[in-house]
Amino acid sequence: MNRTLLPSLIGLVIALYGLSLAIGPAWWPWRLGSEVGWAIVWELRVPRATLGLLIGGALGLSGAVLQGWLRNPLAEPGVIGVSACAGFAAVCAFYSGLAAAVTLALPLAGILGASIAVALLMSAVRSGTGTVSLLLMGVAINAIAAAAIALVLALSPNPFAYQEISLWLAGSIVDRDLSYLAIATPFLLMGGMLVLGAGRWLDALSLGEDTARSLGADTRSLGLRLTLGVGLMVGAATSVAGVIGFVGLVAPHLVRAKVGYRPGATLVPSMLMGAALVLAADIVVRLLPTAYELQLGVFTSLVGAPFLVRAVRKARAAWLAA
Amino acid sequence: MVGGMTAIAARQLLCRRDGKVILDRIGVAFAEGQLTAIVGPNGAGKTTLLRHLVGLEVPEAGTVELNGQPLAALPPAVRAWRIAYLPQAASAYWPLTGHDLVALGRLPHGADLSRPLKAADQEAVRRALERVDGAGLAGRAIDTLSQGERARLMLARTLATEAAILLADEPVASLDPAYALQAMEVLRAEAARGVVVIVVLHDLGLAARFADRIVVLANAGIVADGPPGEALGSGVIDAAYGIGFRHVEVDGVMQPVAWERR
């Protein structure tokens, strides 16, 4: 184990969190010395930076869990359809006008959508046919959710709703107040706690499901636990921030070689790396000289997708052959 | 039957897949300190029998008993430190180091690769690596190794568990003759220490030489069960494999040689 990895990642996350508080239309707001300055810090910057920290951590951790569990370095939270289903539920909240009427309708709908996806995935896991049925169920959920979102957008009578939905789907953590943080945080923490103790069995799964079972892994209860944990994290994250892609894909790739490719040892570093990536991306979109701020999810895709191409090319043959 | 107490036994084991009977009410018991080779033609049910003995499959009828208790009633963690299993063509999905791969065999003892290993676990890993002549492979990433080197590490992973029962499905399939002999000697030594060793083998010569007992499976049933001299005799295996064998004696050990198709 690389001993400098965790301290340097923690240092990086703290530094980026600090920068996230400082940077924006008003730089170093606490230096204003006035009540306005502190209001900017507490009401705008702290919720935004904290959301970036928690959501990035949840996405990085979810990616590491899924990749270890499915034994596939290209797996991502989006793969199993939880993001898409959360997205669809939130779109419904927009379309029905519920989001405009009730402040928290959007995050609540997202969590509900994610829970439905998780329940479907759990039923696939319970049927006991393993990774293949889980992935196929994820593909089905993704396809249905994408089609349903398109349908709702097409039916939308209000052009502003259309724009609002598109922007939200692109992923952002701008203008989320403390209430968003309050509703997302318990789910993110619960999900995180569920998956963080599963590292040993992810290690065992490196040898395939049969060998893992012969080593004592209860693969069925493990599957339920991981499905629920990832569902809570991705559902809560998507409901408050939209779809922020590629973080769950890139974060594990960046740390894996440094922990000797052990899936269990990848979890915590990947969580920290995910937090650092989202905090950094959220800082960059504030600094880009665009007419209006670029959506965070658009930016992570722009940067993440080419990275993925490079990672796939560099990946050792053993990864993809498996 | 020679050897110690019965440690693991299959009773009236019935397994069907897509209507085809794979194991037809098989009853067989394995004793401590014996090396048993399970042989038979492809599709005879050797791997399926092994998987039932590990508890990876639930039989349609019949039971597997571990020290007289139904295997299915034991928690997975207990099963794991009693029975070590090396599947056919074992592989790993990540380029772990040889050391970490072998250390996975210590999971049933509570080891966690994300933390420093306890002294006892570290010692077991070192011993296991030494026994397959693999100390030099400990620091290498397994995707840089040859198939044979990986197979030796997989065997070491199984040894590292230090279980009372060791089941190996074709452990010598990808090994050159030198390492095949070494692997059989390692398994022989395990049996000498009192471990129940059950090995699926295709090489009847190795089976005749190293096994205390041979179980011949054919057509979903046991057609012969006994010491190599009997179970590998010409009448028995000729019928089981549907070919003609010749038998030669080398250093007092009878070696069956597959000779002609019928």
Provide the succession of SSEs of chain B. Answer: EEEHEEHEHHHEHEHEEHHEE
Q: What is the radius of gyration of chain B?
A: 18 Å
* Uncertain ranges of chain A: 317-322
What is the percent of helical residues of chain B? 25-40%
Radius of gyration of chain A: 19 Å
Calculate the mean pLDDT score of chain A and round it: 84
Strand content of chain B: 25-35%
What coarse outline of chain A follows from CA principal-axis ratios?
globular
DSSP strand tally of chain B: 12
Count helical runs of chain B: 9
Largest interface: A-B, 30 and 36 residues
Summarize the biggest pleated sheet of chain B.
6 strands, mixed
Runs of chain B with pLDDT <50, length 5+? none
Structural class of chain B: alpha/beta
The proportion of residues in beta strands of chain A is: under 5%
Oligomer classification: heterodimer
- Cα end-to-end separation of chain A: 24 Å
Would you write up a description of this structure?
The complex is a heterodimer of chains A (322) and B (262). Chain A has helices at 5-22, 35-70, 82-95, 98-101, 105-126, 131-155, 159-169, 178-196, 199-205, 209-214, 219-241, 247-256, 263-287, 296-314, 317-321. Chain A has 322 residues and is mainly alpha-helical. In chain A, α1 (5-22) runs antiparallel to α2 and α12 (247-256) packs across α13. The two termini of chain A are 24 Å apart. Chain B has 262 residues and is an alpha/beta fold. Chain B is 32% helix and 31% strand. Chain B is built from nine helices and twelve strands. The longest helix of chain B is centred in the last third of the chain and has 16 residues, at 177-192. The two termini of chain B are 34 Å apart. The A-B interface holds A 1, 71, 199-200, 203-208, 210-211, 213-218, 260-265, 267, 316-319, 322 and B 51, 54-56, 76-77, 79-81, 83-85, 87, 90-97, 100-101, 104-105, 107-108, 111-114, 141-143, 157, 161.
